[in-house]
Design a protein that fits this description.
Length: 448
Amino acid sequence: MTAQKNMEDIVSVAKRRGFIYPGSDVYGGLSGTWDYGPLGVALKRNIMQLWWAMFVDERDDMFGVDAAILMNQKVWQASGHVDTFVDPLVEDLETKQRFRADHLLKDAGFEVDGLSLEQLTALIRDNNVKSPAGNTLSEVRTFNMMFTTTVGPVANDAAISYLRPETAQGIFTNYKNVVDTFYPDLPFGLAQQGKAFRNEISPRDFIFRSREFEQMEIEYFVDPAKWEGSFEHWRQQVWKWTRALGLSDDTVHELEVPEEDRAHYSKRTIDFEYDFPIGREELLGLAYRTDFDLGNIQRVSGKNMEYTVKGTNEKFVPHVIEPSFGVERALMAVLTAAYTEDEVNGEKRIVMKFPEHLAPVKFAVSPLVRNKPELVAKAREVYDLLKKKYGAVMWDDNGNIGKRYRRQDEIGTPHCVVVDFDTLETDGLVSVRDRDTTEQRRVKPEEL
Ligand code: GAP
């Protein structure tokens, strides 16, 4: 169903209505970066707060952390990112433009999963695959996706650091701190939300593949003998999450990732895919990271990462189940699911049917007309009442009432409240219009 929704229509509403703008637009943009406008930031925060409520606040076994983005370079050496966080890169020999070899080949209709660099090069050569400009391509080589920077005034090797490509490592480096200060029972998890950066060779498809994005990650520490039960627990939690985002079950799909396609640290991965307008693509991942990360930290730092089981004093390095959620992909899925075109009184309308708990604006309040001071004063009173109660309330007296409804439908406001002459002269009731059914009813302002 969502495949029939058009990406351009969604991008157009997102820009026109102040959700998402291209980054640095005024200077011609910066590829792979996006800025959030007033409604976009509200929607994004609602998604992130929902996640924190579900996976941290409502549970007894979860702890939140917020680690620095810049970390000691040893983190990325130990984690394997310096050596293996790479994508296959190919260059147009004329224009010197660079592309992801696997994307070029996929777009040309080839199956590329699990192929080595040599096999990708051979596929390009044997089938005479050209760059989008029609030029010959170089052989395929690897490209490390981490952004490098130097910390401090001296630019030598010891000063090298990276913008983190995943938030996970900031959790692993704090595992011992939390164990030593909170003494949690196993299994327990640490959760973090924050920016991640990847120098994607070809950022594309709106916010789907960005160079700067946000992750919401959980590292759930378990007894190695019991990892399967926890993996299944988190599989179910992911479904709870996709439902809370308002994504119908038939648009979300599990993909058991074969060994050759799994990240270097994973013994089992399920990708949760969503039917985006660009096709079925990864929404989030669930991985069994074993003791790969804590084991590496122990080896490289020389610090003991073992957990001591209370009562038995049994010691082991815990294993890890990692549900890893991308904020932009969640947001793009929410925009896709919400985008609806229908007809009201013979007129086409665009309406964003966000679940109420995610809608950036919950109520819009208007006086029927704006040149009657007593109507405006009463509407302001209702607005103040709702604003105090819900916060996300908009005053909207621009244009006629029909135009206001269309505008509020496009930003997904579930309820439009109108103060009219009957409010003042007869019953004190206001009219409330439902976004999805367009039905109106009259209620006391205090009952809203
Ligand atoms: N710590 C594990 C990890 O980072 P990943 O599959 O590379 O795993 C996790 O990334 C999630 O982060 C993805 O499922 C996706 O939602 C999001 N993500 C990854 N790269 C992204 C990009 N370039 N733009 C937007 N979101 C991205």
